[in-house]
Specification:
Blueprint: H1 10-19, H2 22-32, H3 40-45, H4 52-64, H5 66-76, H6 82-95, H7 101-104, H8 113-127, H9 131-139, H10 146-159, H11 164-173, H12 178-188, H13 193-202, H14 206-219, H15 225-228, H16 237-250, H17 255-263, H18 274-279, H19 281-291, H20 297-310, H21 316-322, H22 328-338, H23 347-355, H24 364-373, H25 376-383, H26 391-402, H27 407-416, H28 422-435, H29 438-448, H30 453-472, H31 481-484
């Protein structure tokens, strides 16, 4: 249809749109489209019409003439009337006009909420098909306005997979706003998990590798577990801790393959794994208990120590059994682990341990563990066997005495100073220092005068510490340590 064939002028059609009923109005819109470019400006004036149905029809008409309407609509994005800005933005989104991107982005900080929301929606529609638009929106992540940043994140999340490559490239190239980019990618990157795993195994840059690990952790993809696990033994501590955090994010499915790798010695266990074990102790504790039976001593010791850190009651029985092992290092690890528990079940095996002279190496941890679980009466009954005990047991009882200050304990420690053994004297001085009464001070002071310089130095240091401690507590004691010495 040519203009000569049209029965109404534009002015007449506009009048019919303004005053006619729905049937007349609809025919008028169909007719005005035939005027093409000449109809654009008159139609745009109707974008602020109070009747929403009219505005919708205008948008439909402009979309039908999108080859003519684009530039005019872009200009209207700066119109003072928010209704026109909103309608123009909506129309450009429906038309998926890529030339509108730069003009739509400023509307993300428009004072009118509906204008902001419509601009964001239109950018999603345009960005899904236009890589340049996506890049413009990615750049908005660095805007000074928090509002613009948040809306840009929403847009990119809703664009989805088409935004993956530009976002990943941005993440690798720059450390700016890495948290925001990782957060967006975590919501859209699942279809591209193979790309991320490839980068995980080929990237050598520490910062880039850290970002990829964080992203895989936030994706919570089980397929990434086997590729992440070797990185717990990476030479860089940042990579190790980031990997552990990623495995925690992925969840309990990490425990089984992790222990498989530890047990077949593909990786070696490290203390940084503890947060993972604690988070999923329901699954890690049975694995650690099983590891206590390993032929590898290092793994057995690691398992025992880990169980002490986790503090799960299921481990008590197995740690107690470990106290009767033939390897003193493993026994020590079990005794130390039991120190995390307050349970009467561990009193007898620990007592048997410290009273058994056949165990040549039992360190302070076993004594300390026992001291936390027995009462004063039980402790003093053990101390009564001091005189008849073998020398190695005497040393352990001296340590135990320092945890239960009493007149009997001080007498035992004073007596220990007379034993012809350097270790006994040293332990006795340390015990007296811990008790710190006037009687203890006298005993330590007397020990300074000793032929053995090591005993003398230990006593001198202990006396000084007692005095300083008492002075901090405003307790009157020796007037002047230096003068005494």
């Amino acid at each position: 249809m040519t203009k000569s064939d049209q029965t109404h002028t534009i002015e007449q059609i506009m009048e019919r749109i303004q005053t006619g009923d729905d049937i007349i109005r609809n025919k008028a819109f169909e007719e005005i489209i035939q005027y093409g470019e000449d109809a654009i400006v008159p139609l745009i004036t109707l974008l602020s019409h109070p009747d929403e149905q009219v505005r919708d029809s205008v948008i439909w008409a402009l979309c039908e003439m999108k080859e003519y309407a684009g530039e005019a609509l872009i200009q209207e994005l700066s119109n003072k009337n928010p209704l026109i800005r909103e309608s123009a933005a909506f129309c450009l989104g429906i038309c998926k006009n890529p030339h509108a991107t730069k003009a739509l982005i400023p509307l993300l900080k428009d004072e009118n909420q509906k204008v902001r929301e419509t601009a964001a929606w239109s950018l999603v529609k345009i960005g899904y098909d236009d890589p340049e638009t996506i890049q413009e929106i990615v750049n908005c992540l660095y805007d000074d306005s928090i509002l613009v940043k948040d809306i840009a994140k929403w847009i990119l999340e809703h664009i989805g997979e088409p935004a993956f490559e530009p976002l990943l490239e941005q993440l690798i190239q720059s450390s700016r706003n890495s948290d925001d980019i990782i957060s967006i990618l975590a919501k859209i990157a699942s279809p591209n998990i193979d790309v991320l795993i490839h980068l995980l195994t080929t990237t050598r840059d520490i910062q880039q590798l850290t970002y990829i690990i964080q992203l895989l952790g936030q994706l919570r993809e089980p397929d990434a577990i086997h590729h992440l696990i070797p990185l717990v033994n990476h030479s860089n501590r940042q990579i190790i801790t980031t990997t552990i955090e990623a495995l925690i994010n992925i969840g309990e499915l990490t425990i089984e393959p992790l222990f498989e790798k530890i047990n077949d010695e593909s990786i070696f266990p490290i203390n940084e794994m503890m947060p993972l074990f604690i988070r999923f102790k329901k699954f890690s504790v049975p694995k650690l208990i099983e590891m206590m039976q390993s032929q590898n001593l290092s793994l057995r010791i690691f398992a025992a120590r880990s169980l002490g850190v986790i503090e799960d009651k299921r481990a008590i029985e197995h740690l107690i059994q470990g106290l009767s092992d033939s390897n003193p290092q493993f026994v020590e690890a079990c005794a130390r682990a039991l120190g995390a528990f307050t349970n009467r079940l561990i009193i007898k095996p620990l007592t048997d341990l410290i009273m058994n002279e056949n165990y040549s190496i039992i360190k302070t941890s076993a004594i300390h563990t026992l001291s936390k679980n027995i009462d004063s009466n039980t402790a003093h009954r053990l101390l009564e066997s001091f005189n008849e005990a073998p020398l190695i047991v005497k040393k352990r009882l001296i340590q135990l005495a320092s945890y239960f200050p009493s007149e009997e304990s001080e007498n035992l420690l004073q007596h220990a100073l007379s034993i012809d053994d350097e270790d006994c004297k040293m332990l006795a001085i340390q015990g007296l220092k811990h008790i710190g009464t006037e009687k203890s001070i006298d005993c330590v002071r007397a020990a300074i005068i000793n032929e053995n310089p090591f005993i003398s130095d230990e006593a001198r240091t202990a006396l000084k510490e007692i005095i300083e401690r008492k002075q901090r507590g405003n307790i009157k004691t020796l007037d002047n340590y230096d003068d005494f010495v």
